[in-house]
Amino acid sequence: MRPVYLIGFMGSGKSSVGKMCAGQLSVPFIDTDTLVEQKAQQSISDIFAEQGEDRFRDIETAVLQNISREPSIIATGGGIVERERNQKIMDENGVVIYLHADFATIANRLQVDSSRPLWNQDLQKRHALYEQRLPVYRRWGQHVIETDDKGLEETVQTIMNVIKQV
């Protein structure tokens, strides 16, 4: 099994689904946001506030580059798609699965989440960011899994079926 990279907008379920998939496959679960925080020794919110988004993206790319190529499930940050270099790393080393959720679903899931700097903006900016990334996710994902109206277990099972086929 090659590494499986989960991409998608924040709140699409990458971490929750990824942990469960990794458990079922008995492989490591890796969250790039967690690794970024460990490397920077700061929360993502603090990195954004003190160093800016560009610095966060630099750390994110460095983390992605250094992830083991062993079988694993890797939940990526929602904006990892903003750099072509990241695309190349994931395409060359694993399987890229896009977890898609409509904006209304994302908004509902994140309504009480204040830990995401790019979500803590006005509604118009959130929606614009979603719309900006949407075509990139669709173009980049080797497999697209719709997560609207699906529970965690159903989404995990769909991913497991994809993994078995690759």
Quick structural summary:
With 166 residues, the chain is an alpha/beta fold. The protein has helices at residues 14-25, 32-40, 44-51, 53-66, 84-93, 103-109, 123-140, 152-165, and strands at residues 4-7, 29-31, 73-75, 95-100, 143-146.
Secondary structure layout plus pairing:
Blueprint: E1 4-7, H1 14-25, E2 29-31, H2 32-40, H3 44-51, H4 53-66, E3 73-75, H5 84-93, E4 95-100, H6 103-109, H7 123-140, E5 143-146, H8 152-165
Helix pairs in contact: 1-8, 2-4, 3-4
Explained architecture:
The protein has helices at 14-25, 32-40, 44-51, 53-66, 84-93, 103-109, 123-140, 152-165; strands spanning 4-7, 29-31, 73-75, 95-100, 143-146. The protein has 166 residues and is of the alpha/beta class. It is 55% helix and 12% strand. The protein is globular, with a radius of gyration of 15 Å. It has a 5-stranded parallel β-sheet, sandwiched between helices.
